[in-house]
Amino acid sequence: TDDGQNLFPEEIPGPAPDPNSPAERFYGAAIARIVRGILVLGIAGTAVALATFGIRTGVSFMAGAGLAYWNFRTLVSAVNSLGDRIVAGHSREKGSAIVFRFISCILLVGIAGYAIFFSWPASLPGFLVGLCMPVPALMVEAGHEGFIALRRGL
């Protein structure tokens, strides 16, 4: 701005958050709950796909859910590493290694989708639905956080 005010102050006004507060502990565990949700929904979805649509769709769904789980974990790791590298400068990883890991995830999903499309074309929808497992896991987490926030006043 022209008046010389800093738009991004170095310190946020107010007391620093207490890492031991119930709210910080609850919201800090969100990633672990989402990862667990992806696993649970992936296992349940695989069982349903196997029972309903057969072995090929079930295996395709399982491959998609497994890649979604791995992709989500890699994304979380990359964001944490890049954030640590930018904010604190204490990351042990090079930026290029972080980016390579993230891009390799996307390439692996593309290769798996390509392989399923040409080997079992009718099973591609199962694979794509399996890839979407983070979405319902995030929705369950959002509902859980909303319920707990209203119930406990977090």
Short description:
By secondary structure, the chain is mainly alpha-helical. The protein contains six helices and no strands.
Q: What does the main sheet amount to? A: none
Mean model confidence by pLDDT: 83
Question: Radius of gyration, rounded?
Answer: 20 Å
Give the CA-CA distance, first to last residue: 36 Å
Query: How large is the count of helical segments?
Result: 6
Backbone structural class: mainly alpha
* Strands, total number: 0
How does this structure look, described?
The chain has 154 residues and is mostly helical. It has 6 helices and no strands. It has helices at 22-28, 30-53, 55-87, 95-119, 124-131, 134-152. Helix 2 (30-53) packs antiparallel against helix 3, helix 3 packs antiparallel against helix 4 (95-119) and helix 3 (55-87) runs parallel beside helix 5. The longest helix is centred in the middle third of the chain and has 33 residues, at 55-87. The protein starts with 21 loop residues before the first helix and ends with a helix. The mean pLDDT is 83.
